[in-house]
Amino acid sequence: MVRLRVLTLNFIEYSATRPYLARLVSMEGAVANDRSEYLYHHYIEPVRSRFMPVFDLLRDQGRIKNIPAEIFYFLLTSGGTAPYGQKGVVSLMSPELASTDETRVRLYAENVAEVLINGLSLTD
Q: Given its phi and psi angles, is residue 62 left (phi above 0), alpha (psi -120 to 50 degrees) or beta?
């Protein structure tokens, strides 16, 4: 669970410094074509390959719900990175979320990880 949390935190912190990635994936991923295929094979699949072994291990151990990993992926990448890819909206909604200050980004990442991992975890 710690590994999944760390992967989640790292992904959000990385995305905060590269807001163009969320926008690029959103735009280019909207249509199945050569660009979306290239993006998938060269950028998305390498990220998924880091999460999948951890996700599968936790599922096999009965520590997380039997939810498709793709749902976690989209919640993390589209929802978790939304403040960084949608600066215009977030600056109107919650200016502190628009900040790329490391402390604020870490707090945001921890909150996202908390929601995602608690929602995924099976209670003992």
A: left
